[in-house]
Every structure is written in structure tokens, then in C-alpha cells.
Amino acid sequence: MKIAVIGTGYVGLVSGTCFAEWGNTVVCVDKNAEKIAQLRQGKLPIYEPGLEKLVLRNHATGRLVFTTSITEAMAGADVVFIAVGTPPRPGHGDADLSFVYGAAKEIGHALESHAVVVVKSTVPVGTGDAVEKIIATIRPKGSFSVASNPEFLREGSAIDDFLFPDRVVIGIEDDVAREKMAVLYSPLAEAKTPIVITQRRAAELIKYASNAFLATKITFINELADLCEQVGTDVGELALGIGLDHRIGRAFLKAGPGYGGSCFPKDTLALLRTAQDYGVALRVVEETVAANEARKRKMALKVLDAVGGDVDGLTIAVLGLTFKPDTDDMREAPSLALIETLQRFGANIQAHDPVGMENAARILENVAMFDDPYECVRDADAVVVVTEWESIRQLDLYRLKQAMRSAIMIDLRNAFGRGAAQAAGFHVSSIGQPVPQLSGSMSGEVPSVSGHRPVHQKSGSAPMSHAVFTETREG
User: Three-state SS for 187?
Assistant: First the structure.
């Protein structure tokens, strides 16, 4: 098939490349001439593991083409994907659909034959209807189809998510769209991947509902992590115990500093606005959004507690800046709220991230960036682990401690085994775990930070290591 993809952002570039990998001819179009020139040279605007290799291979074969001309892209196209951004409108929370509607108008003028126009962007319920009306003002009804095909790509694993998905959701309103989309996704159908055919509005809502549910699941385990700290147990054991229930599942039950990225924050807000427009209250989602935002800033208080209650004048090293590993995406990253809050309290911030520092530097001010993590922690009064990159997890803890002024670690991802960090000489404050007594200390004090009072720990036993077996009892 010939496919046109409008927009070469994260969704458009990944989708277009993977469609080409299946043997289709794909033309990706973008108005940013500099971006298109870079893509033609094999230089990608985003970091995504495995994507560069696929782009280079398919571009070399001629199956993947980049252009700034929508007319060129749509010439003879069977399917046209709209994959432009839908950022939240400032001060409103609902999705800005101006790029989607602008693309629809251009498509209407460039259509040559009956094509299926597919909205791949994440959009509110009813957007497909609006796109259809826009095109119909230019082209007669019956000369085109409009479908919805939401993406479920996770940054850091997008290639696998596209080529080996849990399911494909397609919202259609006519037989022509059904037939062409069936041909397009036949490689997945042959691999027994569930292909869910719905009404167009149902497909649009499925995307938002999925992300809102996952965001709620993350917030749920984060709040239980706070309870675990108070009652003296380990949230890792809790997550294992409830996650093995197949009705719940283990995914997204890892406690941390809150969710971020381009999807969950934006999509939960957009879903709330849609519900408000229809007079429906989504109280669970409302509380999820509020709790997650508060949690990001609460992590700064966790740092204060670990160093004795005051960071004024201290140097805090931050390891990991992006909202998750294997991406350079800084949108809504928990590190932003953490750093900004610590700076207001008077802390000096040094930071390291394997790939995200360039994007972070555009947002953060007065933060010293270090390519070398060991230099990042040099003479620091505390180190905060915010993103669990594998390169960070593999750091030599003894070398890390030796470079620091004070051996205090706040591990917001539980990236290091607490026993290993303690063996290296760190006092560790982690997520969802009780604070153990220091060995050989009856007072429970940690080494004081120069010029600041020591922190007093709560009493409590150290947690057992995570179980690697289950026990079944009858009765």
C-alpha cells in the first residue's frame, strides 16, 4: 500500500517507519524543512531505541520517504494518517486540535482518489466527526473515509509496541475503511494480534480511558508506598502480592516520584475536560491528577527530611532527568518539579542524564550539567536518583560515595538495592520502605551534613528481601 503520514513527531515517525518495515511505501510529511532535511540524512529528532536503524534501512530501500509537500505525500495514497501534536491548551487542559484541523483542510485539497484518512493523534471524542466535516466542505461525501486508529506506544519501547502490540484499535464508519485498514494491518492479524473494530467515537475514548486507568494505577501504588513507609513494610512486597492477581496485573505497580511524559498528564486532563463538556464527573481521574502533581513536589520534602530538614546552601546531585529511561523526553518529568522546589529552598543542583540533558537545559535554569555521573556527585551533600537508567543502576556505589561530601542517597525509584547502598556506606531514603536503624547506632542518627543538624530516623526493622516464590494454601 501507499501510505502518507502527516507529522514526523514521535507517533508519526515511529508509525511511518514501522509501516515501511512491513513493506509499504510510506511518505512522511512535515512543514519543518530543517527536520525533513535532517531525516533525509538519517538524523532523528527524537531518541528511541532501535528507531534509527529502521529509519536508515527503510529510507535506503526507498520505502520510507520524507518531504515537506503534502501534495507529494498524498499522491496515490491509499491511507493518510494524521499524526500531528495535540498539546494541552494553556490554562484549559483540553487538547489543542488546531494542528489536526489544519491537516484535515490540507488533506481535503490534496486528495486525488478515495483514501482513508486516519486520525492517529490522540484526540477527544468527536474529533473524527469534525475532521470528516472539514474534508466534506472541500470534497464530496463518499469520496473519502475517516477512521480512528489510536496509538499505544510507550517511549523507550515504541518499536516493539508497534510491531508486537497487545491489540490494535480501529474506529470505522464504512466498509471501505474496514477493508483498507484490514489490508494494512494484515501482518498483525496473521500473527493473531487482536484487532478491535469499534465505532469511531469508541476508539477515540479507548485511548484516553486506557491512559487514565494506567495513571490511576501508578498513583494508587504511590499512595500505598506512603502508607508502607508509615507502617514499616515494603511496597515492593506489596506490589508483588497484589500484582500476581491476574485481575490486577503487575504492570505499572512500581512506586516512584509520580508519572510524567507526553501522554498521561495530557490525556488525563483532556479526558476530564471531555467529561465536563458532557456533564459527567470523573472523580477518580480528578483525584489522580491532583495527587500526582502534589507527589512530584512532595519528593523535595523527602530530600529535606533525608538531610536534616534544610537544603539551603547544600549541593544536591540529581541522577536522571527524563520522565523515564530510554527516552530524551522531559515533558512533565518529575525531576522538573523536584529541582525547582529544591532551588526555591536554596539548594545548588548538579545533574546528570545519559541523553536528556540537552532538552533539560532548555527548561531548567542554574543547573550544572555533567556528562560523567561521578563528576556530577563530586562534593555533593546528597544524591537523588530520579530516573532508573540502566547506566545509573550500574554505577559503582563505593566510587559514588567517595566522591561525595556526605553519604546520603534519596532513591526515588528504588533503583539500587538498599542493602548494597548501605554496604557502600550510604544512608538511604527510598520509596515505600521503612527507614532502618543504622548499624551500631542506638540513637538512629545519620552522618550530619556540614552545618546542618542530623536527621533522626523512625524506629523499625529492615524489610525482608523480595520473595522469589509464592506459597499456596487451601482453606
Answer: helix
